[in-house]
Amino acid sequence: MKYKVVFVLFLLFGFLAEASAQRFVERLRAVMPVGMRKRGEKVDSVLTARYYQTSCDTNYVVRPEGTLTLKLRLNQTGNTFHTKGTVNGFYQKADLRTSHKTTVSLAASFRGLTAAVAINPAKLKGVYKDYELNAHYFSSRVSLDFSYQRSESLVGDINGDRGARRLESGDVAMKVVNVVGYYTFDHRHFSYPAAFTQSYIQRRSAGSGLAGISYQGGNIKTTDALMARNPDAPEVRIYAGHVGIGGGYAYNWVFGRKWLLHLSALPTFVVYNRNNLTINGERQQAHRMRLNMIFNERAAIVYNFSPRYFAGTTLVMNNSAFADDAVVINQNKWRARFFVGVRL
After folding, report:
1. Of 18, 77, 213, 249, which residue is the least packed, with the fewest Cβ within 10 Å?
2. How confident is the model at residue 219 (pLDDT cuts 50, 70, 90)?
3. What is the CATH number of domain 2-343?
4. What is the spatial distance between Cα 278 and Cα 14, in angstroms, rounded to a whole number?
């Protein structure tokens, strides 16, 4: 029942946003000086020409009509870590996770240029103290995902030959960067933006091979709060940096004329890494990994109520797998989004 209420509110936003935006534009034109209005019309003309200039096969991919697109979005992100292995003769297994970040954002797109503002209710209340930045770029050929997370909310259980203990929020600090770049080979028939920004419309089902590059880097270290509470605890800093290249496949399935389902996967093999471990000021280089891969997956569902109104959900995941004869490390970073939009 709760989700139905949220969905109805999102639809109501679409109708209200349309009426408010039209009134705002009319009032702005009425009070704008003539010279400024002419310059605005010239800029609009250039952006319009750029917007509709495309190499896509219009039987498969087209630009939507309308000047302005407004979207209300509900976003949630999370990050988990799983490690197990034997170091210096002792077996240890850890399952850790950060606090989930939930935001509500309003995005406006003008001729393919998008700006957004987001509110995190938990951060306003002082409950969520982590920092996270997510950005993306989509074109017909090239796409880019970027995320940065700074967190001290890692919690979880650590079990092993030396017993079990609980890692509490504030014991360690983490900084992680993920960057993924995609190249779409069949950009004439397949569109990533149709699924993730709705700046294109996929009219027929199509897929494409992908080439990509991934970077994942960051560090985890013990905090002063942990050292003050437990002076015997070792001072630990783990640094990792990985660059991977690979290929994959993406597919947009159009059905029922109004539905779009997107699935894609891009596994990359790490070709360069720089990993080290520092314990009590003594730095050690990591051993060469037997398995070293970064997986990037995307999924989306979009429903078009009409040429103007649409809604959907997206999921972006970055998973890493690093393993040698002694240690296995997995990280899973994900971002989910539900949205409703209107084209004006």
Report:
1. 249
2. confident
3. 2.40.128
4. 53
Rounded to the nearest 10 degrees, how much is the dihedral formed by the CA atoms of 251, 257, 259, 261? -10
Contact 309, 341 (CB under 8 A): yes
What is d(CA 340, CA 7) in angstroms, rounded to the nearest whole number?
Answer: 8
List of residues 6+ apart from 267 with CB closer than 8 A: 246, 248, 293, 294, 295, 296
Of 212, 258, 200, nearest to 57 by C-alpha is 200
Look at residues 206, 202, 326, 215 and name the one whose alpha carbon lies nearest to residue 270: 215
Q: Give the pLDDT confidence of 271-304 residue by residue, as tens digits.
A: 887 776 676 776 665 566 666 888 999 999 999 9
> Model-level pTM?
0.81
- Two tokens, residue 146: 């970027």
- ∠138-40-48 over CA atoms, to 5°? 40
Closest CA relative to residue 339, chosen from 133, 190, 139, 196: 196
Q: Name residues whose C-beta falls within 8 Å of residue 123's C-beta, 6 or more positions apart in sequence.
A: 129
Full 3-state SS string of 276-299: EEEECCEEEECCCCCEEEEEEEEE
Q: What is the DSSP string of 299-317?
A: EEEEEESSSSEEEEEEEEE
The string of DSSP letters for 78-119 reads: EEEEEEEEEETTEEEEEEEEPPPEEEEEEEEEETTEEEEEEE
The tokens describing 162, both together, are 């030396």
